Amino acid sequence: MRRGLVSVLIFAAFVAVFTLSRHHTTTPITSPTSVTTTTTSTTTSSASSSTSTTAVRTTCRGADFRGTFNQGQGAAGTIYASVTLTMTGPGPCELKGFPILTLQDAKGAVLAVREVQIGSSTGPVQFQVARANQAPMTVALHKGSTTTFSFAYSDVPPGPAACESATTMNVQLTPANTTIPITPQYPITPCNDGTMWVSPFY
Asked: Does 55 map to a domain?
């Protein structure tokens, strides 16, 4: 009898344990997953190549110009005039300084010229254009642009000798450069051994 009671109790305990095990749920503990997103930023440096084309200026050549004689006026025996040079070549070029002048008569003979360069406001003559009385400056020229120089001379002979009479003026920009022939409206008649006062290019 006693043995049977023990058996019943053991069976009851077994049933209880089994029942509890069926209704108890174990939630597993999981570590939170940290997702690290790596963003790769790629910066593309685009080198912008800007090509600046700068035309190289060279010394001007006489062959690239045509000249125009600008008749001036006279005052107290001094004749004033000017010459304008127009660039017909492709260019560009630079010019600085004084023209080199030679004169020819109607037969083509070269006449004597004593050129006196006027590069300040204290010269023996004063030109009407203010820039003609200043020191030489660099003149940048391109096709179609112009530059001018002024000149003056006395047409009053100092003695019985006749003054020269030139029908052509040749303008040379620099030594050993080609010349630009100019035909004046009236003959150029510089006295005093062909003395001519000349301004820089402006």
From this structure: no
* Number of domains into which the chain is organized: 1
The dihedral formed by the CA atoms of 9, 10, 15 and 17, expressed in degrees to the nearest 10: 110
Question: Is beta strand 139-141 parallel, antiparallel or unpaired with respect to 93-95?
Answer: antiparallel
Rounded to two decimals, the pTM is 0.70
* Residue 195 pLDDT > 70: yes
Phi, psi of 19 (to 5 degrees): -65, -45
Distance CA 12, CA 158 (A): 160
Whether residue 67 lies inside any domain: the answer is yes
DSSP code per residue over 34-103: ---------------------PPPEE--GGGEEEEEE---EETTEEEEEEEEEE-SS--EEE-S--EEEE
Residue 15 falls inside a structural domain = no
Tokens of residue 19, six digits: 């029942």
Distance (Å, whole) CA 143 – CA 163: 38
Distance of CA 110 to the CA centre of its chain: 40
Q: Bridge-partner residues for 171, per DSSP?
A: 101, 180
* 187 falls within a domain: yes
Range of the domain at 141: 60-198
How long, in residues, is the chain? 202
pLDDT in tens, 166-189: 999 999 999 989 999 999 999 999
Phi and psi torsions of 199, nearest 5°: -90, 165
CATH of the domain at 136: 2.60.40
